[in-house]
Amino acid sequence: MSSLSLLPRTRHSLLSGAALAAALSASLGHADSLSVGIVGDMASLDPAAINGASWENDVLQDIYEGLVSTSASGELIPGAAAHWQVSADGRTWTFTLRDDARWSDGALVTADDFVQAFRHQLDPTVAASYANMFYPIRHAQEVNSGKLPLTALGVTSRNSGRTLVIELEHPTPYILRILAHGTAAPLPTHLIAKDPQWKSIGHLVTNGAYTPTEWAPQSYLRVQRNAAFHATHDVNYDSVTYYITDSRQSAIMRFRAHALDIARTVPAERLQWLQQIEPQALHASPMLGSYFYAFNTVNGHPTSDPRVREALSLAVNRTTIADQVLAGGFVPSYSLVPASMTGYTPQQVPDATARSERARQLLKDAGYDQSRPLIIKLRYDNSEDNRKSALALAAMWQRIGVKSQLEKAEPPIHHAAIHQGDFDVARAKWDADYDDAMTFLDTLTSWSTNNYSHYHNSAYDSLIKEAVDAVDPTIRRQLLEQAEQVAMKDYAVLPLMTQRSLNLVSPAVSGWQDNALDVHLSRWMKPSAQDAAQH
Q1: What is the mean pLDDT of the chain?
Q2: What angle do CA 436, 317, 389 make, to 5 degrees?
Q3: Are the CB atoms for 127 and 449 separated by under 8 Å?
Q4: Which residues lie across from 84 on neighbouring strands?
Q5: Which of 208, 244, 213 is nearest to 227 (CA)?
Q6: Which residues lie below 8 Å from residue 297, measured CB to CB, with a gap of 6+?
Q7: SS3 of 271, please?
Q8: Which of 259, 263, 493, 510 is exposed most, by the fewest CB atoms within 10 A?
Q9: Strand 92-97 relative to strand 81-86: parallel, antiparallel, unpaired?
Q10: pLDDT, tens digit, for every residue of 17-76?
């Protein structure tokens, strides 16, 4: 609920008519606060130190602004760069920074800040979770692997810091989408050089619409409107508070109690109920998101055997989980890339008749039977949807003689466990960072820092590399489809469902627009006309 409705009457009684009108006018221009429920806490306010969760990107795009930004409808717009141009071969991009791009302490944002940021993301000692997303940049992979120094990265500052030049290894159609991601934010070089605590609240400066002012870990993060932001007069809420609502059911309760203006990612199991109870607030929209389970393919784990992975996949009834267990909040899926991906035909895991019988035979071939049953560690992050899907998988696998040891954890702990390889099968999801199949397929390359399965297939890697170098879009698409086909035949992951974005937005808030990437910057939110009229 907008805090406009919480203006104390005692304050009004102390104001003259003219002063009251002025106060209300000012309030309606910049409402006090927006309350947003997010699934988990930030791992860090350093863009290179996040775990890779979608809610972290939500916050990063509110407090930082990259060269490119995102409109309310999800379209690309100029950010810290006023404009840009690309060379005829598509490999050199030149960005001219806007003259009024400033940090929250008033310092000018420079091209050097972006050079520092990209080097920081690709510094092998940082081990950034999104490092591989920047591999299209010249020498990025060699820098990230420690084969070349940071200075070799194809990002340079020119024209006294007003121009940034990015050289690419190959033409990359989606490069602007990458540059709009929260991890492509600049870093305040002027502060880092003199303050080792630059990442901390009270020290940190940002260049986005908001800047952090208070952080109670696992409780909330509060950010204040950045007066130095170039479009600050168009930012309607003076502050945004992100409340950590790892229980999605709790998020609904808090929203209905008017403790939240926006609840991000509400549980799919409540979709039908919410359609009846909160029809005006519910936003259910198709999105480019894949809900899957990662198989640990590292030697020593039972899931390193492709026969085991195939058996586990065959035993799963995706339609039952999507339509019955999770009440229609998801769409059954047999591919990593969602079916709604533009200009691409997703490649599905192979189907088979007599699925249960074949699954049992595959397990027997792999050395498992009643006397030596397969026991797997099944991890999931703590939410009702995830708990139900994990329990459903365990029940389906039990029918073919598999025993599951379920382990749940809060989202940040769960993500850390996945990266450390502490699982056999783990619940995972990937929301598209840009509208291109590569955002999903890149996560299965052997060099990806988001390769949760630790999958490695040289044929797959070769096809992705060929697709990266392909100039002809038709050939590129064919190569990507061939690569996914290889991975699906390998059962590199267990695709389960395609996501719908499910959000609750108070009618008192306007400016929200559903989009396929489910990206919603707080700078576009404002009190609705109806809410404003009531106050």
Answers
A1: 90
A2: 75
A3: yes
A4: 95
A5: 208
A6: 303, 304, 309, 453, 454, 455, 456, 492
A7: helix
A8: 259
A9: antiparallel
A10: 333 233 333 333 456 899 999 988 999 999 999 987 888 999 999 999 999 999 999 999
Residue 168 in tokens: 């690419």
> Which pLDDT belongs to residue 14?
29
Amino acid in position 145: S
Q: Which residue has the tokens 């003219």?
A: 18
Q: How is residue 525 written in tokens?
A: 């939110």
* Mean pLDDT for the stretch of residues 409-423: 90
**Residue 25, Cβ density class (10 Å: 0-12 exposed, 13-18 middle, ≥19 buried):** exposed
Is 230 within 8 Å of 100 (Cβ atoms)? yes
Query: Which of 422, 428, 305 has its CA nearest to residue 364?
Result: 305
Cβ 225 vs Cβ 235: under 8 Å: yes
Residue 160: count of CB within 10 angstroms of its CB? 9
From the list 418, 440, 450, the residue with the least C-alpha distance to 488 is 440
CA dist., res. 402 & res. 400, Å (int): 6
**Residue 183: φ, ψ to 5°:** -80, -10
Q: What is the pLDDT of residue 153?
A: 98
Distance CA 280, CA 506 (A): 8
How far apart are the C-alpha atoms of 134 and 138, rounded to whole Å? 9
For the stretch 169-195, pLDDT in tens is 998 989 999 999 999 999 999 999 899
Share of the chain above pLDDT 70, in %: 93
9, pLDDT greater than 50: no
> Tokens representing 166?
């990015």
Residue burial 356-383, b: 16+ Cβ < 10 Å; e: rest: eebbbebbeebebeeeeebebbbbbbbb
- Nearest-angstrom CA–CA distance, 219 and 41: 8
Cα 47 from chain centroid? 12
Give the H/E segment covering residue 504: strand 493-505
Structural contact between residues 199 and 47, judged by C-beta atoms closer than 8 angstroms: no
How far is the C-alpha of 287 from the C-alpha of 501, rounded, in Å? 6
Number of H helices, E strands in the chain: 18, 19
Kindly state the average pLDDT of the residues 103-131.
97
Cα separation of 217 and 333, whole Å? 35
pLDDT in tens, 237-292: 999 999 998 777 889 999 999 999 999 988 877 888 999 999 999 999 888 999 99
Q: Where are the alpha helices (DSSP H) in 243-297?
A: 248-256, 271-277
